[in-house]
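Let us work through a complete example step by step.
Step 1: write down the sequence.
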Amino acid sequence: LSMADANNTPAVPQPPVELTPVAGFLAATLPFDTLSPSELARLLPTLAISYHTRGECFDAGSEPCGLRILRSGAVDLRDADNTLLDRLDEGESFHIGGLNAERGQVQARVIEDALIYFLPDTPYQALRQAHRNIDRHFSSQRNRRLRRAARYQPAANALLQRIRDTMSTDLLTVRSSDTLQAVAEAMTQRRVSSALVLRGTQLEGIITDRDLRARALTAALPADTAIASIMTANPETVEADCSLFDATLLMTRRGYHHLPVTEAGRLCGMLTTSDLILARQNDPVYLVQHISRQESPEGIKALLEGMPGLVVQWSQSGMHAHQVSRVLTAISDAVTVRLIQLAEAELGPAPATWCWVGFGSQARAEQLFAADQDNGMIISDEARDADAGWFAGLAQRVCDGLQLCGYQYCQGGVMATTESWRQPLQRWQDTVRNWTATPSPAAVMRVSIFFDLRAIYGDDRLCAQLQQVMLQEASRNSIFLAALAANALENRPPLGMFRRFVVERNGEHRDAVDLKKRGVLPITEIVRLHALAHGIAAVDTEERLQALTRAKKLTMGDGRNLADALHCVQQQRLQHQCQQILAGEPPDNFLKPHGLPTLAREQLRDAFTLIDESQAAVRQTYRAGMN
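Step 2: predict the structure and record it as tokens.
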């Protein structure tokens, strides 16, 4: 462990005794996994090891220069304003000198007891000069990531911001001898809802719009009455460096709408409930509300431009993947609804009742990034042939608007703009009966997304009637269920012998696995199959699992295992996409598992193993129909 020398120079960790475990760890850690065994052997003697407890900090002024690699534990990187730039865990590394050159005063703080491998600066720089890919890893990827973090992540949570960053400093101050009329005129002229009463530089009281209404007008006080008679004397204050959470808690408990802010005992600002609302404008509820107020697709697009950064913020503030996916689905629902409303305003009222439905991940409320459009329309059987143009026009406007807002057109044409996905109810019901009666491969491919549907806008009774036919036809047709089972077995989890990851061997996604196709999709298809077989009306995967468990169609253990596997894969998918956003890259579903920390790799292996076992159970359960 590290010790300072007699000259009080920065302490350098002492080298570990046993290097074999270190070699094994580095060989599986980016970017050192690209080194040959001989290069790795030459690097090992230059390393040192140290153990650090929670709360310890590293900064450029007090620590020796070099690369620190996390063997275990976790470290936060924060800038001079204490803004969280990144959170590192096992297998990740940081170089304080390089971070300061890029970002200014950056400090690394241990948040979980950490074992750290230290590579001094001289061999570190030599390594970068000798290996271009390693140099690019440290100079390009990490720095880009920090730049994107600074842009997208102002704070882990809006309410953890300091009050000084939100409070108003343009204060209206008055004296206690000023009249009600004079103060009211001043507040009106300045367009503020409160005034602070000072005696010299000391805060003596506060007067608000409510005081003028409740204490002056209601009591019919003369206009020349001094405000001292109605002000709140010696008001409670809060320090500027406190968090908005502290202020919110105080204002909620006391019923305050205005809270004076001080610094070292001196008045410096005012915080209002309106300020708190504005500070939380990055909240999902705020975003959904403001989508509904936009007057054009372009306005919605502009509002959504910061959404990738918000997702990173939500994730790093502790929101789990299933919560983020529900929020993103609520946002896509809100976008769809507003686009429909704008189209209706242009085209006029609908000529017949109808329903816009979402399919696939939107229906299941499981959307993350890299999702395309999957939608359709169910039209009342009362609609006439002459009405078809109205529905086609609305579908085109909505799908074009979704494309503009970042929801890509479906390459397979599963959109309301395609006539076969925009039908009267009776024709839809006939289509379902045909699909289940003759389950061709093409029909099963459609069903794999179509049987997950949810009403987004319009008469949801049309959706319910169609879903009822779907459940009736599917649950009593063993041949159709067998076809669904065969389709559910098409996408195998990416595990080979000895639970090794099976990755892409070439192409754009070399060494990666498709978490959506090989992880999420098998789970949702297995659960959908069981739900259709047993007439479960729920669409959300977790709700289906709960319903199947309650009906004793799945054991509690099997239901929990599938739910856990889905959560694990979705969490890795979300974290992967957040890292891509921070690096300035478009988010996708292709994760390189060998770049994960050991624990995360093992969890992902466990999830894929559970999927494999569940597929084996499907094969056993539906064997008769498959034969």
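Step 3: interpret the result. The first helix runs from residue 20 to 27.
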